[in-house]
Design goal:
Elements (H helix, E strand, L loop, with lengths): L5 E2 L5 E4 H7 L7 H10 L2 E2 L4 E2 L7 E4 L7 E5 H10 L5 H18 L4 H13 L3 H19 L5 H9 L3 H10 L9 H8 L2 H14 L4 H18 L19 H8 L13 H4 L1
Amino acid sequence: MNIQILVSKKGTQVVTATNLHDVLDLPLHKYNSNIKRWLSDVYAFEDDVREPVIMHDYALRNTNGKREDYYFSLEFAKLVTLSSGSQVKQELAKYFLSLEGKTRKDEMLTKDQVLAVLELTKVMGLISCQKSVEKQHQNKFTEAQGKAYEWWNYRANLLGYSVRELKDKMQQVGQTYKGKNLLQMLMHLDKYEIIRMAVIDLFLALGKGEQYSKNMGDLAKVFASELKVEIWDDRKSDLQFTHNVNMELVNEVKSFQNEGQTLGLWSRRQTA
């Protein structure tokens, strides 16, 4: 099996469209038409039936080659493989499936990690921590993409909603959005979404994959709802009056100590 598995800057395993097409032993002169079909077909993804999304399931690859190339996620590559007319599609799809299975096993949480997410949920009620991890995530995105102006569109696609959509929802519930930022609108619409957002930022800043980070964010949102975590702007208050918040973890998050006692649970060394 000559398929090359690469690792993106976000830590996601990917393959290239050119390599996949060659391994499937499809006619070279049909490359352009096959790529066009692959990117426009509707696939039964694990989470739902949907079309592939750029910068999520695939991304354009900068190359000086004669063929336009793309990076494909493993799941997308598996679905493309199964829809091809290749004689080796079953063998290659099974190989992709084995890699996905290994990834899922590696991403299972330990008891310590579950407890750590619980503590992170409480900490992310502090706006100083939310802003800190957002900045770390944005820095990582800019470093990888080199296009700071794409940050807000990228983040809206990541979270599943835009500022414009939040404004529409504010109007629907009879609230004014004028003079309110994203955080203030979420306080009216769904305050525990703020916790989810912050945890996603944190794990992406730590270099975890997009789906894994979303899973951690979803888990934290459930914890936040059960614990009734309050959102507090600690930047204007004295932290000594807080209760039930791990101050060591607060400092760890704000200084982004990815080898600290809690965040270190997700370091490459400990999860390899």
